[in-house]
Amino acid sequence: MSHTAHIRSHRKPRRSASTIAMRAGVAGGVLSTLAVAGASGSANAAEPVTQTLELPTLTADLAAQVAQSADVTQQAAAGYELRAERDAAATQAAKEAKADLAEAKKKAAEAKKKAEEDARKAAAERAARTAERATLSASVDTGSSDSSGSSVSSNTSTATGSAAAVVSFVQAQVGDAYVSGGTGPNSWDCSGLVQAAFKQVNVDLPRVSQAQSTAGTQVSLSNLQPGDILYWGGAGSAYHVGVYVGDGMFVGAQNSATGVVMKPLSYDPPSGAVRVL
What we know:
Elements: H1 17-46, H2 60-138, H3 161-172, E1 177-178, E2 187-188, H4 190-199, H5 209-212, E3 217-219, E4 229-232, E5 240-246, E6 249-255, E7 259-264, E8 272-275
Parallel strand pairs: 1-2
Antiparallel strand pairs: 3-8, 4-5, 4-8, 5-6, 6-7
């Protein structure tokens, strides 16, 4: 026995058998639980865990929604495609319009250039005609006779007023072609030229030579004035007409070989004349 055994504070209390048994049982239960848990853990570690997901059931409403969504998507795609086609067409149209505009500008420039060139040529031709008239005027015989011996005037008076307009018109056509039935602007027959000349001063003449030879007052060839109508053949049955322009000269659309010419009266002496103005 210990030397302190008699001291109360150093005595260990005795445990009862029931307490010991209870503690042993608790300990055994804990150990059993740990063993089971360990075995379960080992089993779980050895076998993989498989998780199963349940998908929602495809009901009629859900199918309709899916179909509607597909239709909307398809319509949107069609809309995008149509818009792309329209954009491409607009781009192509713009390119074509730009090309057409460039071509139109090119043609306009060419037309302008041609018009300017034609104007220069016309001016040159007028100058040449003026020079020819001056030469012819200088070579006119003063006081020539026709084939029948009748005296033909070489009146040198200057045309004025309406007569001047008629004379200016016919002189401007010198060099144009002769075409039977021609009424201008670049080809004439004899009566077509005379009719057009008097139309410049608002005088309406008949279309044919026969009628024009009686359209005014008959005048003597020795008393001609610029603007008088000359005719060849009989009055009322004339086969050719022209216009007296002064200085012993006349202008007429003679024939297909000569065209419209300005010649002295001696070139082709007329049969008579009428005065309209």
